[in-house]
Amino acid sequence: MASVGDLVQENITEKKSSTDSLSNEELGIHRLSGNAEAISNNAIGLNKIEPSWFSRKRSLIRYLKLFALTALILGWWISATVRHATRHRWIVQTFFAWSFVAIIAFRFIPNSIVTHPVEAVWIPLIQKPFFTLPKYARYGLGWLALLAIVLGSAFGFELENVRYLLDRRFLS
């Protein structure tokens, strides 16, 4: 009488590698002390291909690329700020340049260097006093801040020069 295990065992096909039929001597496997085995790949024609210089130095190349990108961003920022033609846009240029530099720098700097000092100031001076206010007072302050941002951006900036209007016309 056949059991279920025998039926399952019959349906399993064996998978053999191409080197199963070769003997250990043909493969270049020699017995050493204990269970250690040495395999000579040259005996069966498998030469090890060494990784290229680029794959071995991947992290160095990554650091150099990020350093070069940072230098390029800072060079663009300095030249754009110094040039008289683009000097009036120094705030936007500075914001974008230093934002990208900070993004690249924080790939290498741990976040705790910034978060711990900010937390030490933020929690006792802003967070605790703000959350001691009643809920509707906090909602009111939030709406006032939103209204100040919207109205300040709509009516707070005076256009003084025709050059700004030309910039807006060509940029949009």
Task: Provide an overview of this structure.
By secondary structure, the chain is mainly alpha-helical. The chain has 3 domains: 30 residues, no CATH class; 56 residues; 44 residues. The protein is 66% helix and 3% strand. The protein is built from 9 helices and 2 strands, in the order ααββααααααα. A two-stranded antiparallel ribbon has the order 1-2. β1 and β2 form a beta hairpin. α5 runs antiparallel to α6. 0% of the residues are buried. About 3% of the residues have low confidence.
- Kindly state the percentage of residues in helix: 55-70%
Category from helices, strands and their pairing:
mainly alpha
Distance between the termini: 85 Å
What overall form do the CA principal axes indicate? flat
H/E element order: HHEEHHHHHHH
Q: What percentage of amino acids are in beta strands?
A: under 5%
Number of domains: 3
How many beta-strand segments?
Answer: 2
Indicate the radius of gyration in whole angstroms: 34 Å
Weakly predicted, low-confidence segments: 33-38
Report the sheet with the most strands, covering strand number, pairing sense and barrel closure.
2 strands, antiparallel
Mean pLDDT: 77
Count of DSSP-assigned helices? 9
Placed side by side, the strands forming the largest sheet appear as 1-2
